[in-house]
Amino acid sequence: MNAAQIGEVISLATGRDEAPFVIDEIEPGRLVVRLPFQQRMLRPGGTLSGPALFTAADLAMWVAVMAHYGPVVAAVTANLSINFLSRGEPGDILAEVRLLKKGRRLAVMDIGLFSAADPKTRIAHVTGSYAIPPEAPSA
């Protein structure tokens, strides 16, 4: 699926007029998702919060599943582990996803999280997997 198709499917699945993210890059095995900054993403002290980073990683994995399996809205998070590496300065959250394994029932991914305010500094490293429902297209 391309970026426009993914946005359309997720908008329909979530009941939103538009997807709450932007796909900056998409290619086989890799994509970059941007979660636009909102003031509520900040924790006391003015840095990006853990829940905001977790949300960005989980959303980016869901987008990666759509990009590589098709419109599988019933796919769900099976595992997500996050390591916080540095302070996230206020800004859009960039999630660079690499698909490590595209199996019939499980997609395994590696995600780097960055702030658009400092896109060269990784603020978190995430590993995760999504369970793919039986009706999904085969790998």
TrEMBL record:
SUPFAM superfamilies cross-referenced by the UniProt entry: Thioesterase/thiol ester dehydrase-isomerase
UniProt xrefs under InterPro entries: HotDog_dom_sf, Thioestr_dom
Gene Ontology molecular function: 1,4-dihydroxy-2-naphthoyl-CoA thioesterase activity
Domain Thioesterase: start-end pairs: 45-116
Name assigned to this protein: PaaI family thioesterase
GO terms under cellular component: cytosol
Superkingdom of origin organism: Bacteria
